[in-house]
Amino acid sequence: MTMRLRMWVLALGGLGVAVLYVLACLDLPSFGGHRHPYGDRAVRAALARHTANTISSVNFDQRALDTLGEESILFGSVLGTVVLLRQTRDEDRQQPEPARVAPSVRRYALFALPVTLLIGLYIVAHGQLSPGGGFQGGVVVATSLHLLYIAVDYRALERIRPLGLYEVADAAGEAAYVLVGAAALPAGWAFLGNFLPYGTFNTLASGGTVPLLNAAIGVEVAAGVVVLLARFLDQAVEIVSTDEEAEDRA
User: Fold this and answer.
1) What is the maximum span of the chain, computed from C-alpha positions, in angstroms?
2) What's the pLDDT tens digit per position in 87-104?
3) Which residues form the Na+/H+ antiporter MnhB subunit-related protein domain (predicted)?
């Protein structure tokens, strides 16, 4: 295919997208009006499947395949970081020196750590009932562990952060999401279809597969953020300039 033909194909494709975009905009409900077709359908579907939090119903039921893509982006980012920042043969790892922490900072961080961890787990567990969910709660859980880095030092964080286990948990969270989606196929549903009993509305067991997918996301996000931060915190770069380089820059 010549460059001229490629440009024509690109122009026709762009023109088609532009036409479809304009037609879609013409049918948009007016701003501030009472007509919200997508929102109304989303709310009805959430209530029909006994999911109290409509946003979680959209994320883990109505558009669960999109959420799988978002989770996979984070998983791929963590995997790429692990590969790029891995220790090479010509690198030496030195143990971090103990750091002095102000007593007030130590007391506050040690007090906030269990509270933050509990809040993060609560957000994950109640994702189908109230605002939040696996993405938000997973970040909060990962943040709570790093409060030990602030309260004590990096060595204390390393003792409660065996990276091998967190890397396995990251992969397990990604795999669990896919396996729950695939479990719908033998039952005659589509991939990631909500095939489990919907349970009682506004309880932890409600929503069918929504709490399972939400929990898988929580595990993947929490473990992924811990691994991601660990790889960056383990890096130490020291730039030493020779006299000749300094003279050249001058």
Assistant:
1) 75
2) 776 666 666 677 788 889
3) 106-226
